[in-house]
Amino acid sequence: MNISLSKEDYFTCLNFALKMWYSGSKSVIDYRSTGTRRDIGDYCTDFIGGKLAEIAFAKFLAENYDIEAGVDFSLYPGITAVDKSDLAWICQKGGKKKKPGIKIDVKGTKPTSKYFLVDAREFNNRPYDAYVMVLVDLPGDHLIRALRDYIPLPDDLKNEIKSLDVVDAKIAGFCWRSDLENEQNFYPSGTVMTDPEKPSRKLFKLKVDNVGFPIRSLRHSYKEWKSLVKALIKAK
To answer: For the chain (length 236 residues), average pLDDT per consecutive 10?
Structure first.
């Protein structure tokens, strides 16, 4: 299902990313590649994309199941600290807010992605019950598009920069933790990932151990979504 995210949604996520950067609540070191300090642009892109995915999922629940959900924008102390679930609360529309019945991790990725992957260390150390994948079409120049009306630019240049009025997202599907525990879904560091639709085409090489499978294998039927929603709203 396609979800439209507003400029207000974008700025909410940008503010969160900047708070994370300047508060030191999350490490700015890129341990997956060079081990050096990350660029603030890349850092913000990761966090903005991730939080937009969470907002998209909350809107998906509201539009399809009359379920209201709150995205967690809290800052947690310590560079390795993480929130317990990407949804801070959930309730039937107009009902009483409560903790979700399960711990859920909403992951955002580019629309061109072919795989749903979770860092194996994260998978083992953070016991989420389910994972949701959202494809977020965040332009590479999103920061400039968002700020084009707030910074002095010559008219000819400003006309070349598109406005960031809407960010499109697509709910690709979800999986249960048990879906990832199968040994065949483990990809060790160094694995060359190939296109699931064209195995002869190499996509990228993994830098760390991962668990996952092609995005097309995610659960996405109406019956399966209903089972996830039922688990989310179940009283603890």
So the answer is: 94 92 64 60 90 97 94 69 74 89 94 95 92 96 91 91 94 96 92 94 95 95 95 80
SS (H, E, C) the chain: CEEEEEHHHHHHHHHHHHHHHHHCCCCCECCCCCCCECCHHHHHHHHHHHHHHHHHHHHHHHHHHCEEEEECCCCCCCCCCCCCCCEEEEEECCCCCECCCCCEEEEEECCCCCEEEEEHHHHHHCCCCEEEEEEEECCCCHHHHHHCCCCCCCHHHHCCCCCCCEEEEEEEEEEEHHHHCCHHHEECCCCEEEECCEEEEEEEECCCCEEEEEHHHCECCHHHHHHHHHHHHCCC
Could you tell me if 17 and 43 are in contact, meaning their C-beta atoms sit under 8 angstroms apart? yes
User: Rounded to two decimals, what is the model's pTM?
Assistant: 0.89
Domain ranges of the chain: 2-233
